Amino acid sequence: MKVALFSDCYIPIINGVVTLVSQLREGLTLQGHEVLIFTVRYRGYKQNEPGTLRFPSLPFSVGNQNFGFGLVSTGYVQKVLRDWGVDLIHSHTEFALDAVAIKAAKKLGVPYIHTYHTMWESYLHYLPKWVISPGLVRMLYRNHSKSADAIIAPSLKAKDYLLALVPAAPVVVVPNGINVQKFRSVGMTQEVMLATRAKYGIAEDEKVLLFVGRIGPEKRVIELQQALLPVLRANPKVKVAMIGDGGDIGTLQQIASREGLADRFLLPGFIEWKDIYGIYSLASIFVTASLSEVHPMTVIEALVCGLPVVSRRDASYLDQVYPGENGELVDSENELTDAVNALLADPDRLSSYAARSLEVAKKFTAEGHVGRTLDLYQEVLKTYH
User: Fold this and answer.
1) What are the pLDDT digits (tens) for 29-50?
2) Residues of CATH 3.40.50.2000 domain(s) within the chain?
3) pLDDT tens digits, 230-252
4) What HEC string does the chain produce?
5) CA-wise closest residue to 285 among 266, 306, 256
6) pLDDT value at position 128?
7) pTM for this entry
8) Are 282 and 238 spatial neighbours (Cβ–Cβ below 8 Å)?
9) CA 31 distance to own-chain centroid
């Protein structure tokens, strides 16, 4: 099978979309399929990755997510795909390259599949209101859904959102997954663990509450910090690590300083994916108050590292967090405070939740994600022809 993947962001950008596109390419190739990636160039980045066509672009960002508005010749893309003999087109973003992908699929008479990775209505605060509104986002998705032979929703939350807009949309749930072997490529020996603790100023007898993600309003990081302040006051041997970039870092630092807890809120900024396994490995609980997720990769990473998860109740977590088994889903920040305090006070339950998280993580491997996606490709091709 010859599959063309389209994305308005790709390596060297690091985010969940790029991770999934890279994993999908690798997994399909290992199974003997051919893959071409159509994406954008980034100034200063040069690579010789075979099978990747990059186009000039105008850079833009939504929050800390960086994209490129591709300056693409539709005719050229269609010629490349026709000469190559493409069987199926799969798009992962909703911008310029996606429009090219839709046109190419129609022109060449091949299926078009789209994965819905992002709840864009949760990101509109980054844009002027006159540029786009929630109603316009929903209208665009209604129109977009009419072009797809199948839409991949990574979670039931995403599926329900899309079906509320277009009840007849061909939506299929394919959960996200990560390459566990790559993620664990850095062995966490005692020496490495001690070095990681020393680097971030975490004593051997201190526990860590961990959040990983964009440090912005859509992740509700300030609300999360407010929920964790009482936890730190009640537990002198606990620190909070909030890993990622974003515009709310300064506000978090100011609040921590004002509360006299600056040395117990760790805000190191962005950490490379290859290095972040160490932070997960020394943490005790993964915490999040975000309600804007589709199917968060960071929670999957936490599960792979055997972390209990305490999160706000949201449909995006329903197949990741099982209350009373590997974590808790709570309905308010006050409940989040209580749930974290209760877990910290009960080492046996903390250990039991950790073991269950490792079991849950087995559902979310890169191999499983690629296999389910490939099954969908074959089903769509069969129906399409």
Assistant:
1) 999 999 999 999 888 888 778 8
2) 2-177+366-384, 180-361
3) 999 999 999 999 999 999 999 99
4) CEEEEECCCCCCCCCHHHHHHHHHHHHHHHCCCEEEEEEECCCCCCCCCCCEEEECEEEEEECCEEEEEECCCHHHHHHHHHHHCCCEEEECCCCHHHHHHHHHHHHHCCCEEEECCCCHHHHHHHCCCCCCCHHHHHHHHHHHHCCCCEEEECCHHHHHHHHHHCCCCCEEECCCCECHHHHCCCCCCHHHHHHHHHHHCCCCCCEEEEEECCCCHHHCHHHHHHHHHHHHHHCCCEEEEEECCCCCHHHHHHHHHHCCCHHHEEEEECCCHHHHHHHHHHCCEEEECCCCCCCCHHHHHHHHCCCCEEEECCHHHCCCCCECCCEEEECCHHHHHHHHHHHHCCHHHHHHHHHHHHHHHCCCEHHHHHHHHHHHHHHHHHHHC
5) 306
6) 64
7) 0.92
8) no
9) 24
- For strand 2-6 and strand 88-91, is the pairing parallel, antiparallel, or unpaired? parallel
Structure tokens given for 174:
């394919």
Report yes or no: 38 and 2 within 8 Å, Cβ to Cβ. Answer: no
CATH number, span 180-361: 3.40.50.2000
Which CATH superfamily does the domain covering 2-177+366-384 fall into? Glycogen Phosphorylase B; (3.40.50.2000)
Q: How far apart are CA 319 and CA 46, in angstroms?
A: 39
Average pLDDT over residues 357-366: 97
Nearest to 217 by CA among 315, 293, 301, 122: 122
Is residue 308 over pLDDT 90? yes
Alpha-carbon gap, residue 296 to 37, rounded angstroms: 23
**Which position has the token pair 């769509």?**
380
| Alpha carbon distance 166, 141 (integer Å) | 9
Partnered with residue 281 across adjacent β-strands are none
- Which sign does the torsion angle of CA 120, 116, 280, 328 carry? positive
Tens of pLDDT, residue by residue over 316-352, are 999 999 999 999 999 999 999 999 999 999 999 999 9
